[in-house]
């Protein structure tokens, strides 16, 4: 069975601070996909990134960066110079292998960025 | 692309009643999935439809059922509502190749 753990339930930072959201996953499949989604108060899940299990290159997109390490089964997300608009709940998710397209989500991390 | 639209946005039902939630998928997306998100938790997979047939189901009882229509719209039906069914129900559409999922804003169901 697949499992995703986001140990940080809530993080509070001051604007312009850097913040890292942790994600640890479990799967027996060799081919799988990892995702990060942002959920603002409106409720919609906003897609941020998808990474397959064969691509361990770190990725940077503006103020966002992701660190994928298969050796530790982690897929961490860093926001540089955080802004108030980054305040939301962030979910890490896993799919693939025997689970097919089904997404297994972590419990989420609520990020609060204070001005 | 028109995105994923869900209706209604909010709903209040009484325990024991039945409810139908609707989703209009993104154009060209032939796979639709439904998720239940209880307050303060991550979404839980209910089931998935591909070309109008269910092709995956999570740990939910049979009183949760669905339909997908040729125009890629879909429904989630829940019979014999229980208080624990109170949650945000999210619909997601994709091309079915794990390239990512487009989610709607959800229907918040409250069972009293």
Protein described:
The complex is a heterodimer of chains A (115) and B (112). Chain A contains no helices and 12 strands. Chain A is mostly beta strands and 115 residues long. The model of chain A has no long low-confidence stretch (mean pLDDT 93). With 112 residues, chain B is mainly β. Helices cover 0% and strands 52% of the residues of chain B. Chain B contains no helices and 11 strands. In chain B, the strands form 2 sheets. In chain B, strands 2, 4, 5, 6, 9, 10 and 11 form a 7-stranded mixed beta sheet that branches. A 4-stranded antiparallel beta sheet of chain B has the order 1-3-8-7, with no helix packed on it. Chain B is globular, with a radius of gyration of 13 Å. Chain B starts with a strand and ends with a strand. At the A-B interface, strand 5, strand 6, strand 10 and strand 11 of A face strand 4, strand 5, strand 9 and strand 10 of B.
Mean pLDDT of chain A, rounded to whole units? 93
Helix count, DSSP H or I runs of 4 or more residues of chain A: 0
Distance between the termini of chain B: 37 Å
Structural class of chain B: mainly beta
Low-confidence stretches of chain A: none
Low-confidence stretches of chain B: none
Number of strands of chain B: 11
Largest interface: A-B, 25 and 27 residues
